[in-house]
Design a protein that fits this description.
Layout lengths: L2 H4 L3 H8 L19 H23 L8 H20 L3 H23 L7 H12 L17 H34 L8 H53 L6 H41 L3
């Protein structure tokens, strides 16, 4: 059998790159005992990196002419603070919400930026480590874009949901929020029967609203980053096809690989930045809505 025939197919290549490094094989669609170790590792690592750079900027801040790094961080801070002031009108809440929005934006931007790394760079290094340890490198799965993992994006959106519930209770009180659940958005009735019916409908509408916001918040980020990751995989296959072919005519595949990879990377920078901004803005909007009385 020839060397080319021993190479994995295009579908094998994509499936391999879509497989997470997990603590154990996943046998069910929903299994809360299975953890994507790669997503957890890179999320924590980039979270620490983002906090370090923000801390470094705050530690070296000067009242004189700022350097480029300080100026960039100040512009970012003013942008986030301005958006927070326009959406969350409670000054006390903004002391926590504005820094939270800043961290969310920086963190998700860094998580998304992992998609710009060469697709096989870290997995190949990881496979080499496994091979040096005497293990089968083909089992060294590694996905480096945490926001292309639905469990990560849904975890972020559920965290925003908990923050919204916290502010609902803090601002309105348990009694006020409970009254809002049974009275908004369709109101109440003096007739006891209609009051019960409207109360059930209002509660159902509120619960559906919370679920819909949370799911759409996480799915929007996941869908865009997952699609971007797939496009990079398809572009990588062009280069792989050129490498496996011995015909001079296959040079066109290499040119397409380079041109398409460069063009998609440039366009993907906009997507990376936009998705971080959208997630941050929706976080502010949902928290702002928790302050509003219905």
């Amino acid at each position: 059998m020839s060397e080319v025939e021993n190479q994995p197919s295009a579908s094998d290549y994509i499936v391999h790159h879509l497989t997470h490094w997990q603590n154990k094989p996943q046998t069910e669609i929903v299994d809360f005992t299975v953890f994507n170790i790669d997503s957890i590792f890179f999320s924590i690592l980039l979270g620490v990196v983002g906090c370090f750079f923000l801390w470094a900027a705050a530690r070296k801040v000067t009242s004189g002419v700022p350097g480029r790094f300080q100026a960039a961080v100040e512009m970012l801070f003013e942008m986030v603070d301005g958006q927070a002031k326009s959406i969350v009108h409670n000054a006390t809440s903004r002391k926590m919400v504005a820094p939270l929005a800043l961290v969310v934006f920086v963190w998700i931007f860094l998580l998304n930026s992992m998609d710009l790394l060469p697709l096989d760079l870290l997995p190949v290094i990881w496979s080499s480590v496994f091979g040096a340890a005497g293990l089968d490198p083909h089992h060294a799965y590694l996905r480096v874009v945490p926001t292309a993992d639905l469990s990560v994006t849904m975890g972020l959106s559920v965290s925003v949901l908990f923050i919204c519930l916290f502010y609902n209770i803090k601002i309105k009180g348990i009694g006020g929020w409970a009254h809002e659940l049974v009275s908004a958005p369709f109101g109440t009735s003096k007739n006891p029967i209609f009051a019960v019916i409207l109360g059930v409908i209002n509660i159902a509408e509120q619960l559906i609203s919370f679920v819909a916001k949370t799911v759409s918040h996480g799915m929007r980020l996941f869908g865009n980053m997952y699609a971007g990751e797939l496009v990079f995989m398809l572009i990588a296959l062009l280069g792989g096809s050129w490498a496996m072919s011995a015909e001079p005519s296959s040079l066109m595949l290499l040119l397409l690989h380079v041109a398409a990879g460069w063009a998609w990377a440039v366009f993907h920078i906009i997507i990376i930045l936009l998705q971080a901004f959208v997630f941050m803005m929706l976080t502010l909007v949902y928290i702002g809505q928790a302050h509003d009385a219905h």
